[in-house]
Specification:
By secondary structure, the chain is of the alpha/beta class. The protein is built from 12 helices and 7 strands. A hairpin with an 8-residue loop joins strand 6 (271-273) and strand 7.
């Protein structure tokens, strides 16, 4: 193992916020050379690149919030050819000192990178395809959640509606309830309670339909980007455009993770020991990206239902005494490794 301090002369630690970024310049031995603050605009970013260019050539940037507050700075640094590594959160002092400031956080970010194996450090996720997919996935998830909330509100409102209204919704599926509620005419009811309930049901149904339409449009855009970036992912059983988009947003580019083990740890599908006394077993890492973990589990469930090879594997492991939960853990770990290796080796383009 070779630590980063053996490969660089200085580290520029960045503590990012909405309006400013504090930058601390730390040498290879951990000493603070200088620190300064920039604004999160074009002038501030240009100043950071200019100051770095006047310093040592062997340098690296340790940036917190690469995908949020520091996204603009990272794009400018990438365009300038600077080397950047992403730090999630700098470690605090071992004595748990309460001291905290933007300057201290920037220094801690730099020192955290100096003490790490240089092969373990991930570069930022930012890229054209990643940026497009990440915002679309975020917007689609919000639309799906809003549609789900509104659907539950519709069911609750029907449950307490007057019998004159409630009877019209009996034995209908959810989709037919939404369609019926959207076409209600409150003015057709003389009872004020029925009229206002119908008005509320119609409003909720229109909200559901709007969110469903947004979900469909966003899914179409996501599918287009996935087909442009890595269409080969869609050839995997259980991987649709949304699952592929989440996997791609987590992976981002070939240099982000040093190995499939690192990717599995990030996805929460890496086995970790959970032994006690005479019990010796493993469980999956409970940390990591939970959205990625959930979508990998979606692949597992789909393959258990439709893939003969996966079902044969389940039956074989059952015969060995493993529980269904343990089998799904093994499958999640295997599928994560399979996806990572596929992403690291893009398909060779065919020549016509």
């Amino acid at each position: 193992m070779t630590i980063m301090s053996e490969h660089v002369e200085v580290v520029y630690g960045v503590d990012s916020h909405r309006d400013t970024c504090h930058i601390a310049v730390v040498n290879a031995t951990g000493g603070v050379v200088e620190d300064f603050e920039i604004t999160t605009d074009a002038a501030g970013y240009d100043r950071a690149v200019e100051l770095a260019g006047a310093g040592p050539q062997r340098r690296v940037w340790a940036v917190e919030g690469c995908g949020s507050y520091a996204a603009g700075l990272v794009r400018v640094l990438q365009a300038a050819g600077e080397r950047i590594v992403e730090v999630e959160r700098p470690k605090r002092h071992r004595d748990n000192t309460p001291a905290k400031s933007d300057r201290l956080d920037a220094i801690r970010a730099a020192r955290e990178v100096l003490s790490r194996d240089h092969t373990e450090l991930a570069s930022p996720r930012l890229s054209a395809h990643h940026d497009r997919l990440s915002v679309l996935v975020m917007a689609r998830r919000a639309a799906v959640d809003a549609a789900g909330d509104a659907t539950r509100q519709l069911h609750a409102a029907i449950l307490v509606a007057p019998d004159e209204l409630r009877d019209r919704f009996r034995a209908l599926s959810t989709s037919r309830k939404i369609k019926l509620a959207a076409n209600l005419r409150p003015d057709n009811y003389r009872d004020p309670v029925c009229a206002d309930t119908a008005r509320a049901l119609r409003s909720i149904a229109h909200r559901i339909q709007t969110n469903q339409h947004e979900t469909y449009e966003l899914t179409t855009h996501i599918r287009t980007i996935v087909n442009q970036w890595r269409p080969d992912l869609l050839d995997n059983r259980g991987v649709g455009p949304i699952v592929a988009a989440v996997v791609l947003c987590a992976w981002a580019h070939p240099n982000r993770f040093r190995s499939d083990a690192a990717f599995k740890m990030f996805a929460g599908t890496a086995p970790i020991t959970a032994s006690s006394g005479l019990t010796h077993r493993h469980r999956l890492n409970p940390a990591g990206d939970r959205q990625l973990n959930r979508h990998i589990d979606t692949i597992v469930l789909c393959r258990l239902r439709t893939d003969p090879a996966t079902r044969a594997y389940r039956n074989r492991k059952r015969a060995e005494g493993k529980t269904n939960r343990e089998i799904r853990r093994c499958l999640r770990s295997y599928i994560t490794r399979q996806l990572f290796r596929q992403l690291q080796h893009p398909p060779t383009p065919t020549t016509g």
